[in-house]
Amino acid sequence: MPELRKPLAADGLPSLIGADRAGLELALAEIGEPEAKRPMRARQLFHWIYCRGAASFEQMTTLSKETRTRLAERFSVARPEIVVEQQSTDGTRKWLLRFFDGQEVECVFIPQDDRGALCVSTQVGCTLTCKFCHTGTMPLVRNLTPGEILSQLLVARDALGEWPSPRDDRLFTNIVVMGMGEPLFNYDGIAAAMKLASDGDGIGLSKHKITLSTSGVVPRIVQWGEELGTGLAISLHAVRDELRDELVPVNRKWKIAQLLDACRAYPHRNKPITFEYVMLAGVNDSDADARELVRLLEGIPAKVNLIPFNAWPGAEFTCSSNNRIHAFARIVEAAGYQSPVRVPRGRDILAACGQLKTASERIRARREAAAASSAAASTPAPAPAAALH
Ligand code: SAH
Ligand code: SF4
What we know:
With 389 residues, the chain is α/β, with parallel strands linked by helices. The protein is built from eleven helices and eleven strands. It is globular. Mean pLDDT is 89; it is low at 1-5 and 376-389.
């Protein structure tokens, strides 16, 4: 039996955002809807929530007034609280969302000519601690529910005014699962959310327009391909295990060779796998690294995305020079792989890759640093060892 989702709205009521048709039927059973009518009512609810984007039951005018009232007494379709909304000079938009328990995540919309991608988060913080990633420094971590993941899509559609869903000229055309968190460590949450996102009766974004990025949770990669079949991106970042163990700690568990075997076995590979490679000056950006990358990718339909390192306060790396990045790209391209250099978007609002960390976390980190330095200033210097005797 599918479960109804935990409360999500500030009113503490269980949210129906994230429920599939079976979940909606359960909700209807709870409000006493006769069994024979539930499948049809569930279809109507599904349409209102995911195709029309209704944010209240009141708007669902094909349901009787009584049904709407009973639903509103027990459930919610409210969005999470939008704590901050920012817009970059390049048009990138970022939302800081707060959920029912006070936890927050960010999501980012990146417009591009006649299309645009929403970068969604899957966890509060991240289970992993990649050295170059700001999200990885957040101490608080929990998985987002399917509804919390989906609500990021609904918030973006609300802001862009793109309801009802299936429209040809929409700006929000793609999803990249590249926000906060390691999606394959929240497999059930992201799988349920992406199944709903790609449902043609609802949000209706095709699986070909969805790309999931993983740092390399090997046992889940092929499973994802079989069950969801979306585009796949791998955060590679290093071509030797010793270095990758340091930069991307999940590599200590699943090595590069295992990761690439999973890529070779990935189903639905009509679309090349994207390998993401963050350019860190003097760390992973030599010609020898580029040549080794080409050797590793042998036999995999691949594209290499070179990501200029986006700095954040306290990061221990710098970005490779433009010349170095282009020299690296030339070696990869000469081997027949596309190797675009990603143009950072939304840097001025800390929305670029790896910069996501919620404002409350940034404020907390600043406070803790200030408290630590004032404590150090007010604590008397330790007495010399001789004086202790
Ligand atoms: N956790 C997933 C998805 C989110 S990160 C993953 O790691 O794949 C999205 C991409 O941004 C990843 O390739 C990640 O390695 C990269 N990234 C992280 N920090 C970065 C930074 N400071 N500069 C540039 N890219 C970064
Ligand atoms: Fe997590 Fe991805 Fe950041 Fe690594 S790069 S800490 S897996 S969000």
